[in-house]
Design a protein that fits this description.
Mean pLDDT: 97
Number of helices: 0
Strand content: over 45%
Largest sheet: 7 strands, mixed
Shape: globular
Helix content: under 10%
Distance between the termini: 39 Å
Oligomer: single chain
């Protein structure tokens, strides 16, 4: 069973970029078929998928966030990273990283989540 842990700043100023890292243990992020994702839950709203990167280093992003989102990985550290540019207060949310055994299965393992607040 893989374990995931998010890390990054809890407070970001408007117009700046947000960078979060997910450190994975229990197996390499190159394990066949696995997908590694970022999701968020704004206050009072539902869970939103931001984007993912596959075991073969193929990223994908939500169309609504695609212009501001970049997802990458560092296999030497067994980590994957989210970068979200030009943030606004509407990007305030609890951010989660998660894993799925394939692109066709549900998210099976989750990080504990990290609160990110966008405020000046």
């Amino acid at each position: 069973q893989v374990q995931l842990q998010e890390s990054g700043p809890g407070l970001v100023k408007p117009s700046q970029s947000l960078s979060l890292t997910c450190t994975v243990s229990g197996g390499p992020i190159t394990t066949n078929w696995y997908e590694w994702g970022w999701l968020r839950q704004p206050p009072g709203k539902g869970l939103e998928w931001i984007g993912s990167i596959t075991f073969s280093d193929s990223p994908s992003c939500s169309p609504s966030l695609k212009s501001r989102t970049s997802i990458s990985r560092d296999t030497s550290k067994n980590q994957f990273t989210l970068q979200l540019s030009s943030v606004t207060p509407e990007d305030t949310a609890v951010y989660y990283c998660a894993s799925a055994r394939s692109s066709w299965t549900t998210w099976g393992s989750w990080g504990q989540g990290t609160q990110v607040t966008v405020s000046s």
